Amino acid sequence: MTSSETILLDKAAIRRALTRISHEILEKNKGTENLVLLGIPTGGDHLAAELAAIIAQIEGEEIPYGVLDITLYRDDLAHKTIRPLRKTDLPFSPDGKRVVLVDEVLFTGRTIRAAMDALMDLGRPCNIQLAVLIDRGHRELPIRPDYVGRNVPTSHEEEVHVDFDRDLKACAVRLVKP
Q: How far apart are CA 131 and CA 133, in angstroms?
């Protein structure tokens, strides 16, 4: 059985989407005060770093960002291959912060539910927002992103892959059809 691929976003389109998302985050939050970004491995962490750099460029000040490992909070551990634990790198307390969770692809919502559970175990944020590069639909939980790079209707069998270059910058988004 062969598969086919379609490039959904190239590097320039990803950069435009992340710049737009950065502006939307700043507008909704009225600047950077108490704003932090938390990326979910294995792609959201890199995107959070990219968003933080773009926001610093726009605002002239850096905002804190970190990485939130959700492995032990997943509800599908019995159904998937075992993933290695990754390090949660939280250089700030989430207490009273406006936390933007960042992930590369939103599908069923289960990853985001696990991220919210993990985050709440670490503190009590003022609010939690969600930024995703790709929203492919098919939600199983009532989760909706606040910021979306692109909506891509897909079938359950299709896969969306975000590729990163050696500098860990997003360089392509591919739709893989079985």
A: 7
Within 10 angstroms of residue 173's Cβ, the number of other Cβ atoms is: 25
The β-bridge partners of 113 are none
Domains and CATH numbers, the chain: 11-157 (3.40.50.2020)
What are the angstrom distances between the C-alpha of 85 and each of 72, 74, 82, 92, 99?
8, 12, 9, 21, 22
Write out pLDDT tens, residues 23-51.
Answer: 999 999 999 999 999 999 989 999 999 99
Q: Quote the CA–CA distance of 9 and 149 in Å, as a whole number.
A: 10
Q: What is the spatial distance between Cα 55 and Cα 72, in angstroms, rounded to a whole number?
A: 31
pTM confidence score: 0.94
